[in-house]
């Protein structure tokens, strides 16, 4: 499988959304052990995404992205500790927004690749 860095990032974001959803369902069903495992997996994915932030797009953007992930991490921890669906929903919305942004970028690059004979880079 030859996935681009953006494709890999999108797969991680998809996995993060699934883990957030799993945590929410488990909390709703009072399956605390399952919820804690889903939260742990969500945090691990978020840490992996954060570690992949590059300064190639500019230091300011990298700092903003790191701040976003710090906030996401805080939301996940607070949602776990407080068993708060509101904070979990907010975390999901943040991840969905990032996923939509990367999807649009990926589509623009694909469209650009077709018209520019592959001259655009597809790096995350």
Features:
single chain, 124 residues, mainly alpha, 4 helices, 80% helix, globular, disordered C terminus
Give a structural overview.
With 124 residues, the protein is an all-alpha fold. The model is unreliable at 115-123 (pLDDT under 50). 19% of the residues are buried. The two termini are 17 Å apart. It has four helices and no strands.
Strand element count:
0
Estimate the mean pLDDT confidence. 89
Distance between the termini: 17 Å
**N to C succession of SSEs:** HHHH
Our count of helices gives 4
Sheet/helix structural class: mainly alpha
**Residues in β-strands, percent:** under 5%
Q: Give the proportion of residues in helices.
A: over 70%
Radius of gyration, taken over Cα atoms and rounded to an integer in Å: 16 Å
Low-confidence stretches: 115-123
Shape: globular
The main pleated sheet reads as: none
């Amino acid at each position: 499988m030859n996935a681009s860095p953006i494709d890999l990032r999108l797969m991680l974001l998809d996995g993060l959304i699934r883990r957030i959803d799993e945590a929410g369902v488990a909390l709703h069903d009072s399956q605390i052990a399952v919820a804690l495992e889903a939260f742990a997996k969500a945090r691990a994915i978020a840490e992996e995404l954060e570690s992949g932030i590059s300064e190639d797009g500019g230091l300011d953007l990298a700092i903003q992205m790191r701040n976003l992930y710090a906030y996401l991490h805080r939301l996940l921890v607070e949602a776990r500790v407080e068993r708060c669906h509101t904070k979990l929903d907010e975390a999901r919305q943040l991840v969905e927004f990032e996923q939509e942004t990367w999807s649009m970028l990926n589509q623009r690059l694909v469209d650009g690749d077709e018209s520019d004979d592959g001259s655009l880079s597809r790096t995350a």
